[in-house]
Structure formats: C-alpha cells, structure tokens
Model the fold of this input.
Amino acid sequence: MIAAYFIQVSYIAAAGLFILSLRWLSHPTTARRGVRVGELGMLLAIVGTLVHREIVSYQWILVGFVLGSAIGLPLAVFMPMTHVPQRTALSHAFGALAAGLVGTSEYYLHTGQLTAFTMAVLSLEVILGYMTFTGSLMAFGKLQGLVPSRPIVYKGQNVVNLSLLALAVGIAVYLVVNPGRSELFPAVAGLSLLFGVLLIVPIGGADMPTVIALLNSYAGLSAAAMGFALDNNLLIVAGALDGSSGFILSVIMCRAMNRSFTNVLFGGFGQVQVAVGAAEQRSVRGATPEEAAAILEAASSVIVVPGYGMAVAQAQHKVRELYDLLTRRGVDVKFAIHPVAGRMPGHMNVLLAEADIPYDRLVEMEEINPEFPRADVALVIGANDVTNPAARHDKTSPIYGMPILDVDKARTVMVIKRSMSPGFAGIDNELYYMDRTMMLFGDAKVFAGELMKELTGTRVGS
Amino acid sequence: MPSSLEGALFVFLLATFVGFEVIRRVSPLLHTPLMSLTNAISAISLVGSIVIAGAEKSQLSTILGTIAVVCSMANVVGGFVITDRMLKMFKKREPGR
Done:
C-alpha cells in the first residue's frame, strides 16, 4: 500500500519536473537547469517504478539498464554535431520500438481479457510504435548515406502506402470487435513495420527536418498511447509533451518551406527537375580571394548566411576565425539562420555554437531580413535554395512562396560554392547572376582559410 | 476500465495544451536540444518496460520487455547527455576574447 502511494507521488513529481524542464529550456541561460530538472524527474520515476508490486525479479531490468546505457552513452558522447540528426532519428526509432514491444507483450499477456478500449489504445500504440520504428530507421539510413537520400517515387505509391495503413487499422478494428482472432495480431505489427519503411522512401534529403519532427511527434504519441493502455498518467503526460513538441516543430518546418504536411509526406519533392529556363546560359562573375578580401576589409557590416554545405565542408571553425578577425577590426558580423538550414530543426545553431560563435550573433530569419539592405556584404556559405530570390517573384518556380533570406538586398553578395550545381530543389539560383554578386568558387573551408590569409596579410608561398 | 478513460483523456488534453504553450516559447536557437530533451523525457516509457521485464509473466513478455528496457534506457541516458553537451556550447560573447 505504501509502495503504491510512493509510486504515485514520484510520478506526480516527475510530471511536474518534466514540464518545468521544458519551461526552462526556453532560453540558453536557464536551459541547462532544465536538463538537470528533467534528469531528476526521470530518476524519481525510475526509483518509484522499481518498487512496483508486480516486479518479481530485477535480473532482466538490470541487464536492460546496463546494455541500454552502453548503447546510449557512446552515441551521446562521441557523436559529432554534424551527425546529431542521425542520432535523433535513431533515438526516435529506439523510443518507438520500446512502445511497440511493450504493446505487443501487453497484448499477449492479456489476450482475451482486454476491454475494447484497452485493445483500441494497444493497437494504436503498436501501429504508431512499429511504423515510427522502421520509418526512423529509414530516416537514419538516408541521413547517414546508407540508403540513397534522393526520393524514390513510382506511380500509385500513395495509394499503395495508404492501403497498407488502412489494412493495418482495419485489422486492428476487427480485433477490437472480435478479440478471439489473436492470430491476426502479427499482421497488424508486420503491416505497420512495412508502412514505416514505405512512408520514408519517397522523401528527399531536404525534407528531413520536417520528417524528423513528424517522427518525433509519432514517437511521443505512441508513448502516450502506452500510457492509456497501462493506465499510467505520467506516460500520458510525457508522451503528450513529446507529441506536441514534434508537432509544433514540424509545423514550423513546413511553414519555413511554404509547404503542407500532405505535400511533404506525399509530394516526392526534391526530385531532380529540369527547371524552366535553365538552358539559357547566363554569365556569373567569379572573384579571387584577394578581391573578396579587399571588399571585406572595407565593410562595416557583414551578414554570414551559412547552409548545410558549410557543415559538410567542415568549414565552421574557419568561419569562426574569420568572424573573430572581422569582429576585432570593428566589423559588425551576424549570422542569418533560416529555419530549415541543416538537417533538423535548429541544427545550424548547434553547429555554429560548437564552433564557439556566440549565440547572440545567430539571428533568425524574420529579425535579420530587414538588416540586409543595410549590410555591406552578405557572405553565403553552402546555402542555396533559401537565398533564391525566385521564391519571391517567380510563380513558376517550385520554391515560389517559400520564405527566404533577403540576401540579394545586400550591397555586395559573396557566394562561396564548389561549382554551379543546383541545390536540393534542383533549381537554378538567380542570385548568382546578379551584378553585385561575386562567386567565390572553391571548397568552403579552403576558401575561408584563404580569405583569412589575405586579410591578415601573411600569405605564404607564391 | 471505462472510469479511467475520461481521466486519461483529461490528462492527455491538458498535457497537450501545456506542451503547446511551453514549447512555443522555446527559442528557435534551441530547437535541436529541445528535440533531444523531449526525446529523453518521452523515454519515460522505460517505466512501462521495467514492469513488463520484471514481472516475468511469460517468456515472450520478459524478452520483449527487456529489449524495451534497453531501448528506453539508451534514450534516457543518451538524450540527457547529448542535450547537456549541446547546451554547454551555447555561450554569450565574452568581452575581450
């Protein structure tokens, strides 16, 4: 009896601490306190659960603790920040698998004695859990480059996918009405696993931020469904928090690309399209490090526009050196962060913070856009589609209507780019053909290094 | 358990609203740590896995429960550690650096 009270009290405290934890995460100054509080809540809940009267042996729990920590800790400690999206996808997969497995065990432990309500939420837990598990594994594969990241589409794909899901849900409903047909349960699990894979197959690399956020939401909802099935309010609270967080993030990501959920999930965006008017040859103005350095030297305000290409080239640290040097010379340097820069929500901020760039220099799109007309130089490093002015005026462009950074309004635009190849949307960027644009061809890291040498005047060799 | 259904839905509804309000205020700067933190928090499914693995009611449930404990524990440990690792990097400009 006392144990039951202890569990309830620890769960109520944990729920409160989790909410507080997210509340404190709202600002960098209090965020780490938020993590501490979240850990405390988790510890309380685990200790509370360990006195549960149904537990007869701790042997397997201990095995699970040790193995789980052995998997989770290295993934957290050694994962480079560029790979955080992969780790996140993997952790969604873990969370969802746990939900699916608990649902499956519950089903087989109580087959035949489940109420219709419990059976319904168990099915929901199992379907969401298993589809999020394979879906997140696919997302992981695409991010890690194990699976081609380009979208794979075929005719009738959406019909096939949705029929699979409908079939899984249909069987689950049948099981709620006819609890005796337990031999059909594996079909629900199998179809959900398959659906998860097929759901992610048509999604391209550029849509990963939205998809990861959406999978985040599903993983949370499957945990909440587990809470319904186990009649555990703490699970419902934590699952609902996770679910709403994932949902908000995916809405933000969709808005930042001017696309709807259905379009992301069923659109097959990011296929290589032959853009209209791409055949027309226009000339670009290339520039050397010397020319670029001369302009930076004279500038008083510079806005750096980093994209995922910067992270791929591992140029963040060179960019930081450049930032330090220009700042020391009294130049006002800011970084313009588009919401979908990187491979998951907020990814670019983490990459720049890792390179020791102060977070008060990282400015969101809405706040930085009015500053571009006053900036002497906009330095674009590894960003493409989010700077394309076509999104503002060209109704035929696939990215028309997408909010962009107003890079083209700066006095001088510099673009560090490997070649003239198009971005993820597969379209040409008219920014590169403007008169005030200087194309700095080369590897971002090498070029940033050369700019540094020019600016400090300690060029070696030649 | 029809009496607990309303209670559970009530809790879910309120938690979702609280979630929306709290998470809307999180600065876009911290959206990546936000995702890893909510991920760690929702690994609270660990408590459900613990009971299944420890109750040893059937061989199947013990095996599945143990795998579930492994998965959830990986998220608990990994989620909190990487969130803190990321947050540690967010620094304000120090004058004279």
Remarks:
- Chain B has a mean pLDDT of 90.
- Chain B touches chain A through 84 residues (CB under 8 Å).
- DSSP finds four helices and no strands in chain B.
